[in-house]
C-alpha cells in the first residue's frame, strides 16, 4: 500500500514537472528556454515581440489607481506586442502633465498592471520589455534631472558619470522600466544641428570614455538586480554631422573616417557590454542605417561580437519608404530592415502587418525572424522577467529623487561648469551689498533643463536667481530683471535692467538658449518639433535648441545681445552665465565682458552649482568637449581635423574662439618633468607617460591633464593632434602630483591604404597640456617595428 502511494506521488510530481513548459523553468539554460518558447509561438506572436509601441497611451489614470487602457489590451490581444517605449514619459508631445502623468509610485502601479495583463491574459504569458528615455535622468515625473550630455562630458570625469548613470538606472528600474535609451554617441561636429546637447561633443576618445561610463552605470553587473537597465546606444551611426545642420539629413563621410572617428565610441561601448543599439535616421554612402547590413550584421555582430538586439529609431523603418525612397512598400521596407539585421521596430508600424506581409511573400525567411525574436526573448529571460515582472511601488516612491541623487546632480553640475574667461572678477564676495541678476535664463527653470525633460514642480528646480539668493546673506540686495526673452522681440524691459545694473556692485547676466518644449508647438510623428521660420510680431517660444530646432546662425537670438551691451555700457562689472545646448557666437562678450561661465543645461541643481562657482565655494574645472567657432562660415571647426592645417579667411582667422579642452580655474597649474618610456614586443607596444602637475594657486582645485598625440609621418593622412588620454586630478593648494598615462597599440594605430589597422614605425609626438591649444610640454618617441592589428570592414 505504501509503495503504491509513493509511486502515485512520484508519478504525480513527474507529470506536474512535465506539464510545466521548459521556458518557465528558471533553472534551465537561457538558450534552451528561448528555443522552447520560440517553438511554441505562432508567426504572429513572433512578429508582435518585435513591435515597440508608444507606451503613454497604454494606461488609464483614475482617482485612486492606474489600469490598462483599451488601446493596450487591443494591442496585446490582436498584435501580440512585446515591448513599449516611453510609457512613463511626460512632456508636451505626450500631453502628459503633472496632473495627467504618473508620479513614481503610480508609475510602478501602471507598469505592474501592464505586466499583469500580458502575463495572465495571453496564451504564453510573455512579459513586456519597457524602454524609457534616460539621457540625463529618467524622463518621467518626479525623477532627478541631471545636466544634459554635453555638460556631462564637460566634467571630463567618467567615474562621476558612471555614478550618475547608476542613479538614473535605479530610478527607472524601480518604476518598472528595463531599458534606458542612452548614451548618445554621435560626434557633434556641426553645432547648427539641433541635438548637440544630447552628445558628448566632437571627440571620439572623450565620447568613448563617457559611453563606457554610461553603459557600466546603467547595466551594472547583474541585470536581475532590480536597479539596473539595458543600455541602448544612439544613433548608429554618424548622425551628428548632417549637411547644413539638418536633423536626420544626409551625411558625407569617407569609409576611413567612419572607422577612425564615428565608430570607435560605439565599439568601445559594445566592448563594455552594451546590450542594445538604435539605428540612426541618416544614410551612409547611399545606404540608410536602418537597412545597412554592413553596419548591423557584418560590423556590429561578426566583427565586434555584439550580443544584444538592435532597434530602429522611431519610424525609421517606414522612413525607408517615405524619406529615403529605397523601398516601394511597407513590406519591402520591413524586409530590407530585418534582413539587414534590424531586430526590433520602434513605432509599431514598421514591422507588424508589413513584416507579416513580407513573410507571406517570401521576402523574409522565418529563420531570420526567429533570430531577431530570440535576441529580444533572451534579454527578457536574463533580466528575470519571467520569474518576477513586477516592482514595488513603495520602493519607487522612496528611491526616486532621493537626497543622495539630488546631491549627485549638484556635483555633476558643479564639475560641468566651464570658466571660459575671468579677468579677476570671479569669485564674487558674499559681502557684496547689491547684485543685479539679469537675463531670460536667470529664473526660468525649464530653460536650464534641456530636451527630454518631464514636467517639474517648482520646488524641485533651483534657478540661477535662487542659487544666488541661497548663497548671500540678508545684507545683500539681489535685484532681478528678466530684460528680454530668448527669441521673442515683442516685449523687453532693457531700461529696467540697465537701472538695476547701475545700482549694483556686479551684474550677473544669464543668457543663452532653450530646449524647453511647450504645449503650443507642433510635433512630428518622431517627436521632433515642427519648426518654421519666425514671421510677424506674434509671440514665440524660447526654444531654439532640442530635437528639430536646427539653426542657420549661431548668434544669440532675440534682444539678448542688445540687453548685454546696454548692461555692459553702465560700467558695472559684468559676469555672463551661459545656459544653452550648443556653441553660440560669443565674440562680442568675449571682447567686452570680463568673466564668462558656460553651464550648458545644468539640470535641477544648476542654480546652486553655478552659485557655488560664482562665489568660490567650488573651484571650476570643466573643460569644453566641443569647439566654439567665431563664425558659422568656419564650420566645421573641430580641433582634430586632418592635415593640412586650415589657413585664414579674408574676414577672420581659422581658429575657434575657444578650443576643445579649454577651461579656466581659480588656481594656476604648472606642468613639468614630462617623461616617456616605450616597451615593444612582437605585436604590442606600451608607451608610459609621466608628467608632474603642481597647483601654484591659493585654492584647492582640479586640473584636467590632456594628452594629445601626432603621428609625424603616416601612410594615410592623420590629424595634427588627437586626444588619447586624460585625467581629472584634484590638487590642494601648493600640492603637486605625478600623473601617469599609458598608450598602447590601439592608441597609435591608423587605417593604412589597404584598410588595415596598423601601427607604423616612425616618430610620434606627445603633447601634454590644459587644452588642445594650451599645450605645456612636448616630446617625441620612436616606434621601431610595425604592428598589424586587424582589417576594417570592407
TrEMBL record:
One GO-annotated biological process of the protein: glucan catabolic process
One family name in Pfam for this protein: Glyco_hydro_3_C
Endpoints of the signal sequence: 1-19
Keywords of the record: Glycosidase, Hydrolase, Signal
Domain Fibronectin type III-like, chain residue ranges per copy: 703-772
Molecular functions per Gene Ontology: beta-glucosidase activity
Stated name of the protein: Beta-glucosidase
Species assigned in the record: Pontibacter qinzhouensis
Amino acid at each position: 500500500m505504501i509503495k503504491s502511494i509513493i509511486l502515485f506521488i512520484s508519478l504525480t510530481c513527474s507529470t506536474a514537472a512535465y506539464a510545466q513548459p521548459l521556458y518557465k523553468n528558471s533553472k534551465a539554460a537561457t538558450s534552451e528556454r528561448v528555443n522552447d518558447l520560440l517553438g511554441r509561438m505562432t508567426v504572429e506572436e513572433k512578429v508582435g515581440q518585435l513591435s515597440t509601441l508608444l507606451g503613454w497611451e497604454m494606461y488609464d489614470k483614475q482617482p485612486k489607481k492606474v489600469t490598462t487602457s483599451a488601446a493596450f489590451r487591443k494591442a496585446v490581444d490582436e498584435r501580440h506586442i512585446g515591448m513599449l517605449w516611453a510609457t512613463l514619459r511626460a512632456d508636451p508631445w505626450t500631453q502628459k502633465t503633472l496632473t495627467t502623468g504618473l508620479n513614481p509610485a503610480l508609475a510602478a502601479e501602471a507598469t505592474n498592471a501592464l505586466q499583469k495583463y500580458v502575463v495572465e491574459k495571453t496564451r504564453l504569458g510573455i512579459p513586456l520589455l519597457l524602454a524609457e528615455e534616460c539621457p540625463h535622468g529618467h524622463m518621467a515625473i518626479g525623477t532627478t534631472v541631471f545636466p544634459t550630455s554635453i555638460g556631462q562630458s564637460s566634467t571630463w570625469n567618467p567615474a562621476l558619470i558612471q555614478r550618475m548613470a547608476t542613479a538614473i538606472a535605479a530610478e527607472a528600474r524601480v518604476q518598472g522600466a528595463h531599458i534606458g535609451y542612452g548614451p548618445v554617441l554621435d560626434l557633434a561636429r556641426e553645432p547648427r544641428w539641433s541635438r548637440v546637447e544630447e552628445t558628448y561633443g566632437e571627440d571620439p576618445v572623450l565620447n568613448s570614455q563617457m559611453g563606457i561610463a554610461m553603459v557600466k552605470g546603467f547595466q551594472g553587473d547583474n541585470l536581475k538586480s532590480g536597479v539596473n537597465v539595458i543600455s541602448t546606444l544612439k544613433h548608429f551611426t554618424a548622425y551628428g554631422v548632417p549637411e547644413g545642420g539638418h536633423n536626420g539629413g544626409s551625411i558625407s563621410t569617407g569609409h576611413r573616417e567612419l572607422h577612425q572617428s564615428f565608430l570607435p565610441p560605439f565599439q568601445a561601448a559594445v566592448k563594455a557590454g552594451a546590450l542594445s543599439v538604435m539605428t540612426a535616421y541618416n544614410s551612409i554612402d547611399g545606404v540608410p542605417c536602418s537597412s545597412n547590413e554592413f553596419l548591423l550584421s557584418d560590423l556590429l555582430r561578426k566583427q565586434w561580437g555584439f550580443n544584444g538586439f538592435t532597434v530602429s529609431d522611431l519610424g525609421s523603418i517606414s522612413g525607408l519608404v517615405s524619406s529615403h525612397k529605397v523601398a516601394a512598400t511597407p513590406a519591402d521596407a520591413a524586409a530590407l530592415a530585418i534582413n539587414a539585421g534590424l531586430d526590433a521596430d520602434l513605432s509599431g508600424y514598421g514591422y507588424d502587418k508589413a513584416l507579416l506581409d513580407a513573410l507571406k511573400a517570401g521576402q523574409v525567411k522565418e529563420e531570420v525572424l526567429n533570430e531577431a525574436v530570440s535576441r529580444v526573448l533572451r534579454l527578457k529571460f536574463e533580466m528575470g522577467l519571467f520569474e518576477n515582472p513586477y516592482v514595488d511601488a513603495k520602493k519607487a516612491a522612496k528611491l526616486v529623487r532621493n537626497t543622495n541623487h539630488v546631491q549627485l546632480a549638484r556635483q555633476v553640475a558643479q564639475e560641468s561648469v566651464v570658466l571660459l574667461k575671468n579677468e579677476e572678477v570671479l569669485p564674487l564676495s558674499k559681502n557684496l551689498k547689491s547684485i543685479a541678476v539679469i537675463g531670460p535664463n536667470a529664473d526660468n527653470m525649464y530653460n536650464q533643463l534641456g530636451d527630454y525633460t518631464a514636467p517639474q514642480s517648482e520646488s524641485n528646480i533651483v534657478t540661477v536667481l535662487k542659487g544666488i539668493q541661497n548663497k548671500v546673506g540678508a545684507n545683500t540686495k539681489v535685484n532681478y530683471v528678466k530684460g528680454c526673452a530668448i527669441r521673442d522681440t515683442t516685449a523687453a524691459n532693457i531700461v529696467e535692467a540697465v537701472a538695476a545694473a547701475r545700482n549694483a556692485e556686479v551684474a550677473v547676466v544669464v543668457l543663452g538658449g532653450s530646449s524647453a518644449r511647450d504645449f503650443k508647438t507642433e510635433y512630428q510623428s518622431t517627436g521632433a518639433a515642427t519648426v518654421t521660420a519666425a514671421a510677424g510680431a506674434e509671440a514665440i517660444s524660447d526654444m531654439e535648441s532640442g530635437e528639430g530646432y536646427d539653426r542657420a546662425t549661431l548668434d544669440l537670438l532675440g534682444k539678448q545681445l542688445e540687453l548685454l551691451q546696454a548692461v555692459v555700457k553702465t560700467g558695472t562689472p559684468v559676469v555672463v552665465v551661459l545656459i544653452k545646448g550648443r556653441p553660440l557666437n560669443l565674440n562680442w562678450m568675449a571682447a567686452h565682458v570680463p568673466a564668462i561661465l558656460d553651464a550648458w543645461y545644468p539640470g535641477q541643481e544648476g542654480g546652486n552649482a553655478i552659485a557655488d562657482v560664482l562665489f568660490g565655494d567650488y573651484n571650476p574645472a570643466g573643460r569644453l568637449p566641443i569647439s566654439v567657432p567665431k563664425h558659422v562660415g568656419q564650420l566645421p571647426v573641430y580641433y582634430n581635423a586632418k592635415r593640412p592645417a586650415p589657413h585664414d579667411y579674408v574676414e577672420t582667422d581659422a581658429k575657434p574662439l575657444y578650443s576643445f579642452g579649454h577651461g579656466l580655474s581659480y588656481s594656476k597649474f604648472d606642468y613639468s618633468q614630462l617623461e616617456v618610456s616605450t616597451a615593444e614586443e612582437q605585436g604590442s607596444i606600451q608607451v608610459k607617460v609621466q608628467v608632474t602637475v603642481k597647483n601654484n594657486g591659493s585654492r584647492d582645485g582640479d586640473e584636467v591633464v590632456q594628452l594629445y598625440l601626432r603621428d609625424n609621418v603616416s601612410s594615410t593622412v592623420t590629424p595634427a593632434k588627437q586626444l588619447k588620454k586624460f585625467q581629472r586630478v584634484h590638487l590642494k593648494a601648493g600640492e603637486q602630483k605625478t600623473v601617469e598615462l599609458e598608450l598602447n597599440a590601439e592608441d597609435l594605430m591608423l587605417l593604412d591604404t589597404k584598410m588595415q589597422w596598423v601601427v607604423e614605425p616612425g616618430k610620434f609626438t606627445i603633447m601634454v597640456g590644459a587644452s588642445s591649444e594650451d599645450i605645456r610640454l612636448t616630446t617625441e618617441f620612436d616606434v621601431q617595428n610595425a604592428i598589424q592589428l586587424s582589417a576594417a570592414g570592407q
